[in-house]
Amino acid sequence: MAIVVQKFGGTSLADVEKIKNVARAVVREKELGNDVVVVVSAMGHTTDNLIKLAHEISKNPSAREMDMLMSTGEQISISLLAIAIQEMGYRAVSMTGAQVGIYTEDTHSKARIVDIKTEKLMSHIKEGEIVIVAGFQGITKEGEITTLGRGGSDTSAVAIAAKLQVENLGIERCDIYSDVEGIYTTDPRVVPTAKKLKEISYEEMLELARVGANVLHPRSVETAKQFQVPMRLRSSFKLDDLGTLVIGVEKMEIYKPVTGLACDKSQVRVVICDIPDRPGNASKLFTLLAKYELSVDMIIQSYARSSNNTNDIAFTIDKDDLQKFMTLKDEITSIMNPSNIHIDEDIAKISIVGAGMIDRPGIAAQMFETLAKEGINIKMISTSEIKISCLVEKMHAKQATEALCKAFELDGKDVALVHGTLPD
Ligand code: ASP
Ligand code: MG
Predict the structure, then answer these.
(1) Looking at ligand 1, which residue's alpha carbon is closest to its atom 8?
(2) Which of 31, 199, 275, 372 matches a 20 to 30 Å C-alpha distance to 220?
(3) Helix 63-87 to helix 16-31 angle, to the nearest 10 degrees?
(4) pTM of the model
(5) Minimal-distance CA residue to ligand 1 atom 5
(6) For a substitution probing ligand 1, which of 40, 153, 176, 220 has the most ligand atoms within 8 Å of its CB?
(7) Contact call for residues 53 and 20 (beta carbons, < 8 A)
(8) Which of ligand 1's atoms lies nearest the C-alpha of 73?
(9) Would you give the DSSP letter of residue 120?
(10) CA nearest ligand 1 atom 6, residue
């Protein structure tokens, strides 16, 4: 029998009725003749609430205890879902990450999976049981509980599917269920006429996930791409709808230069001003940031000013990492002696993404012209092969999104209005 991995997010499991609904979706897949491995997130806003509790006690709770705390959310979901499935007359067993053997690096709060054991999982499957695995969590070699970073259950699901594929255990695909019906050209809450895509490539999905499309955990797409695991994004409330298929770019027909647009308001811009223009400074700066696990994006170095032989380096970081960055400010100042370190929180990053923009000139010009016509100033630009991102002021985010959707035909009057929120 083929194995299907199904992943259900927090909104699909928010209350008892929804858990029963998920149980029906699982049983339905089993009835189609597949073996099923289910991966779940914590119910509703459980993870947020747990974090809030910890912060009511401490401003800076230790990462180890936060992982211990946050991993409990998924443990509630696995057991309740197993009970719901058993209540329907089917055999189900819940497993924590440690019970399965989901091994991670030895870092708390954003650990990467290094290996997944399949023996115990498969022995339950062979018994005809539906296996329900706690997403988002793993264990280190030393037996410490870790978590994979917010939204990490997607990655747990795809990593399990990938490992089953590597071991030739008959994986069919990985279905990621949430309360939206697939991937849209842009956030349907901002542009209600956004279109649902039938398919999207891993590459495009990766860019959209990274730039804050808030649909999938980026590492889940990376893993799916690396192991070529077919992935479907679909709704747990519309089981007949096949949603959006995420596949390799070579399998797609590309007919438009831009597939999607994402707006990310969760970054801040840092400008390190007037750094002496000599070899090694950028290296020192980014080595220091890497040492403290600060991911940076949109790095730009200005043209050296000949008057004092200095230049500026600007980059963006996650808003959540700002506090950590502030603790490094003094160290940066003592290493490179900048005239100022400027922080700008009033930014939104608007990105257009499309595998079809490769070898097609004029897309950047069209994006900048569209923003110019709206009178929107661009604060920073960065590009990749299939993405162009512009930083704008936060108050212009919606206007920029709407104008660019029109310019690149990402909206359409023929498309039904989409209800619901984006997945957690
Ligand atoms: N429960 C975790 C979170 O809220 C993991 C997940 O939902 O994927 O981030
Ligand atoms: Mg999620």
Answers:
(1) 151
(2) 31
(3) 60
(4) 0.78
(5) 151
(6) 153
(7) no
(8) 1
(9) H
(10) 151
Q: How far is CA 80 from the centre of its chain?
A: 26
Transcribe 400-411 into DSSP letters.
HHHHHHHHTT-B
Interacting residues of 358 by C-beta distance below 8 A, sequence separation 6+: 385, 386
Average pLDDT for 260-287 = 91
Is 334 exposed, middle or buried, given 0-12, 13-18 or 19+ CB atoms closer than 10 A?
Answer: exposed
* Tens-place pLDDT, residues 164-189: 999 999 999 999 998 888 888 888 88
Q: Are 149 and 166 in contact (CB under 8 A)?
A: no
Counting ligands in written order, the one closest to the CA of 177 is 2
Kindly report, residue by residue over 28-50, the tens digit of the pLDDT: 999 999 999 999 999 999 999 99
How confident is the model over 210-233, as a mean pLDDT?
A: 84
Going by C-beta distance under 8 Å and a sequence separation of 6 or more, which residues neighbour residue 419? none
39: nearest Cα among 214, 213, 163, 207: 163
Confidence of residue 419 (pLDDT cuts 50, 70, 90): very low
Cα–Cα distances in Å, from 327 out to 267, 372, 401? 18, 37, 34
pLDDT at 406: 93
Helix (H, G, I), strand (E, B) or coil at 17: helix
pLDDT recorded at residue 10: 95
Q: Which ligand is nearest to the CA of 10?
A: 1
Distance of CA 96 to the CA centre of its chain: 22
Residue to mutate, 12, 40, 70, 146, ligand 1, most ligand atoms under 8 Å from C-beta: 70
Task: List the Cα angle 220/225/229 in 5-degree steps.
Answer: 85
285-335: pLDDT as tens digits: 999 999 998 989 889 988 877 777 889 999 999 998 999 999 999 999 998
Q: For residue 25, what is the enclosing H or E element?
A: helix 16-31
Are residues 246 and 352 in contact, defined by beta-carbon separation less than 8 angstroms?
Answer: no
Most ligand 1 atoms within 8 A of CB, residue of 8, 13, 47 to mutate? 47
CB atoms within 10 A of CB 141: 11
